[in-house]
Every structure is written in C-alpha cells, then in structure tokens.
Specification:
95 residues; alpha+beta
Length: 95
C-alpha cells in the first residue's frame, strides 16, 4: 500500500514539474515575441516622428538661454562669516 502512495506521489510530482517546465518555455517564447513586437513598434513610431527636421541648438544659444534664466530667477546666496577665532558665527542672506 505504501509503495502505491509513494509511486503516486512521484508520478504527480513529475507531472507537475513537466507542466512547470512547459509553462516556463511558453512564457519565454511569448516574452521573446513581445520584445520583438515592442521593438518593431518603437522603431516604426520613432521613424514617423519629425525629429530629424530640426537643427540642434548651438552652444552659444544654450549659454545665452542659461544666462537669461539665471537672471530671471535670482537665488539668495548664504554668506557665512567667521569671527576672530576663525569659527563660523552667523549666516546672512546676501543680495
């Protein structure tokens, strides 16, 4: 009786392992197909965008843009003074 139960246990365990292996293979196949479809869709979408029609900004334009944005948004600078012992005493915002 015990031999039948042990045999049934190993048979069911083996069939479960075979099923799991089959499911793993199926999932890997579908992931590979999905990856290929996604790459194809991205290439098609990016190929249709008019990105290549614009000239990239030159470094001088980028510098001027940065300077203008810095002038429009001033930020307070914190100056830390030292006392006669060389230790930092207080923080004051400088304008």
């Amino acid at each position: 009786m015990d031999e039948v139960l042990i045999g049934a246990f190993f048979a069911s365990t083996g069939s479960i392992l075979l099923f799991l292996r089959h499911m793993r293979d199926e999932i890997m196949t579908r992931i590979t197909v999905l990856d290929g479809n996604l790459a194809e869709a991205l290439q098609k979408t990016l190929g249709e965008l008019p990105i290549g029609d614009f000239e990239p900004p030159n470094p001088m334009q980028m510098l001027l843009t940065q300077l203008v944005s810095d002038r429009l948004n001033p930020q307070a600078v914190i100056v830390q003074e030292k006392d006669e012992k060389g230790l930092f005493s207080r923080s004051k915002p400088a304008n």
